[in-house]
Amino acid sequence: MAVVNKHFILLIPCYNNFKGLLASLKSVHYPFNLFEVLIIDDGSFEIINEKIIHELYPLLLFKIIRLPVNSGIVTALNTGLSVLHARNDYTYIARLDCGDICQPDRFTKQISFLKKNPNIALLGSWCSFSNPTIGKSYLYKTKINHHKIINEMHIKCSFIHPTVMFKKEVMDKVGYYPTNFPHAEDYAFFWDILNYFEGAIIPENLVTVEMSTGNISSKNFKEQIKSKKAVINAKGSSFWYKLIGLSILNIKSIMPLKFIEKLKLYFNALDK
After folding, report:
1. Is residue 242 within 8 Å of residue 236, measured between CB atoms?
2. Total H helices, total E strands in the chain
3. Could you say which of 3.30.70.100, 3.90.740.10, 1.10.10.60, 3.90.550.10 is the CATH number of the domain covering 1-99?
4. Positions in the chain whose pLDDT score sits under 50
5. Model pTM score
């Protein structure tokens, strides 16, 4: 009997959020024989109970890699990529974070799009950011074709991490998530991919991303701004778009994070 290659491996890092992990897994709908889940436990003290996962999703193929100590998101993701890089039984790597929820047709639509557009190596979608604490959400919309995405990437990240799917072979060219851009490793990684391959965005809300400003310290926010500026300077391709992007980040750096989130909710609220 011929071995059927998996369409994708879903990479999920987890740190003390087993409840969120279960919610995310519940939202994944795709033929069980055509995908797997790789969970990287980043040194959690909260046990990821494999028995419960098996009981809830008996047909789900998954593997858990446990890091001995909490090492941060970049180490967790790169551990996953290094394991997946050595495999040749799948085509794409997809991403999801614990607590984020996929629309039922997310993966069907992404795989269909990629099959119809073999030139695309990095694919994302629009998404909604939801703050369950205040019961508000907003829609994150971006450009959708490669050339416009490149321009937009100077100003904001067109790819929200839990929405993306990318070809396995991009790792052969760009490697893994860079470690020298704290709190903006995904932004830098996507830039690396786009400098060699084509990207695209499906203009539909396919993922709900859990948002909680209480989990983001002002220190990390400032560091993220600094890293984003470094990414634009290092990887941006347009002088004028770089100037615009850096100017916007400079303005954000003097604004409170909560105020920025309120502006996003005001201008993009889904419940108007």
Report:
1. yes
2. 10, 9
3. 3.90.550.10
4. 1-2, 214-218, 271-272
5. 0.92
